[in-house]
Design goal:
484 residues, eleven-stranded mixed sheet, 16 helices, 13 strands, Amidase, Amidase_dom, AS_sf
Length: 484
């Protein structure tokens, strides 16, 4: 930093980062150094949040080279020189491992970057480390604690370390951003794994439409539901990150059904809620909230009405609200997807199938099976070829009940801009649909647990969801910085 200038880098936004870069008040090297110092002080010492699994040894060199680029007049965009943390199930072709938190893959180095990582590097982002996570993205055991992995240990919620649930599976990605260990992070979601930890850690998380962001190079659970997405302290920062990672990837056919690349920032400041209609499923989303949670959610709904929006109370949004949730689709797709991914792992790792993972865990029970592996075992009983009538019927039923007879139907019938729900309640239905949602801080409960509201829409409705979330964020201002 320039002499006589003292910058408060906690909670700093992308716009302010780029402003200080341009003015010469700050360099990427200094910003990376700041975050590494915080990680040293608070992630492995002090409260020991344990959100960062691995540091990129090249981070400082990359930051310095990007500073040189800027000095020579080449600025790649709003992520140029910005430090970012990547979830540990996303491939990076550098000196960091990709393990999904499993000791079975603790020595695995990916051969190439995931498509989204390649996009981030092209945009000038500095990947400073890998985030700890719930092992196998929380598809290992029924009683797996949120944020626990055999390789990385337990991630803690910075708002109540060891007391409050950090949620998951993108636990480290959320806790690191809440703790100001990086400017941005990438999480992944199959069902709730971006939205819920974002809510519990008082940050913003965007779960995009399946296909908007490539999944190639990401350790999978479900081809039907998996997606990566941005996590940030502010909606605008998350939207900028989403712009950077979207794009068509020949290795992920789902990306070619997405609309042409668009800006989520354009028109954001002029957006309004006037005349917009927002649906709420009363029975499913509201009636089970406790007094404080209901009060916070009611306050959020009132804010939307005060901004000119209209709240529409619905009896139900999807028939699945009346049915018990199941893992049938995930159990079948996990084995198929994981076996394919592991076929690309170097043979020296000696893990090339789900069966190998299970056997490794059995042979290393003390370290690997503190919480069992029922989901791995159940998935391994499937044929792995996705031909089972039970699987095919379950998949088609999920899509019909969540899309045609669910979200699409109620949005069209009620002329809705979005559906609103409290955190940790309704995420499973848009997850099965493959539809987008964004989680925004809305307050705290009586125990100090952060709360959020989630805006959900039909396929590829990210822009209008981001606009609604941005207005809500700006008017409510419920993001509270962590103080260690």
């Amino acid at each position: 930093m320039s002499q006589n200038i003292v910058l408060d880098l906690n909670e700093i936004t992308l716009e302010k980062i780029q402003h200080h870069f341009e003015n010469g008040d700050l360099t990427s090297l200094e910003l990376v150094t700041f975050y590494l110092d915080r990680i040293s002080s608070f992630d492995k010492q002090g409260p020991k949040i344990n959100s960062v699994l691995e540091i990129n040894p090249h981070a400082l060199f990359i930051a310095r080279s990007l500073d040189v680029e800027r000095k020579n007049g080449n600025v790649r965009g709003p992520l140029h020189g910005v430090p970012i943390i990547i979830k540990d199930n996303i491939d990076t072709a550098d000196q960091m491992h990709t393990s999904a938190g499993s000791l079975a893959l603790e020595n695995h180095y990916a051969k190439k970057d995931a498509f989204l990582v390649k996009k981030l590097r092209e945009a000038g982002a500095v990947i400073i480390g890998k985030a700890n996570m719930t092992e196998w993205a929380n598809f290992m055991a029924y009683d797996m604690p949120n944020g626990f992995s055999s390789r990385g240990g337990q991630v803690l919620n910075p708002y109540g370390p060891g007391v409050l649930d950090v949620s998951g599976s993108s636990s480290g990605s959320a806790a690191a951003i809440a703790s100001n260990f990086a400017a941005l992070s990438i999480g992944t979601e199959t069902s709730g794994s971006i939205l819920c930890p974002a809510g519990n850690n008082n940050i913003v998380g965007i779960k995009p439409t399946v296909g908007l962001v490539s999944r190639s190079g990401i350790i999978p659970i479900s081809i039907s539901q998996d997606t990566a997405g941005p996590m940030a302290r502010k909606v605008k920062d998350a939207a900028i990150l989403l712009e950077a990672i979207q794009g068509n990837d020949p290795l992920d056919p789902a990306t070619f059904s997405a609309p042409n690349k668009m800006s989520y920032i354009e028109g954001l400041e002029q957006a309004t809620l006037k005349g917009k209609r927002f649906g709420v499923s009363y029975e499913f989303c509201i009636q089970h909230l406790n007094h404080t949670q209901r009060s916070v959610f009611d306050e959020a709904l009132k804010l939307i009405e005060d901004e000119g929006g209209e709240i529409i109370y619905l009896n139900q949004i999807s028939p699945l609200e009346k049915m018990e949730s199941d893992y049938k689709v995930l159990l079948h797709e996990f084995k198929s997807g994981l076996n394919h991914y592991l076929s690309t792992v170097p043979t020296k790792i000696k893990i090339s199938s789900l069966s190998d993972v299970i056997n490794f865990n059995e042979q290393n029970k003390e370290r690997c099976l503190k919480h069992n592996q029922e989901l791995l075992l159940e998935s391994n009983k499937t044929d792995g070829n996705l031909t089972s009538p039970e699987y095919l019927k379950a998949k088609l039923n999920d899509l019909e009940m969540t899309q045609k007879k669910g979200i699409d139907l109620v949005i069209e019938e009620n002329n809705l801009t979005a559906i609103i729900s409290p955190n940790d309640v309704w995420y499973g239905i848009p997850a099965k649909a493959g539809y987008p949602s964004i989680s925004v801080p809305s307050g705290f409960d009586a125990d100090g647990m952060p709360l959020s509201v989630i805006f959900t829409g039909e396929a590829y409705s990210e822009k209008k969801l981001i606009q609604a979330a941005y207005i809500f964020e700006q008017r409510s201002n419920k993001r509270v910085p962590v103080v260690f």
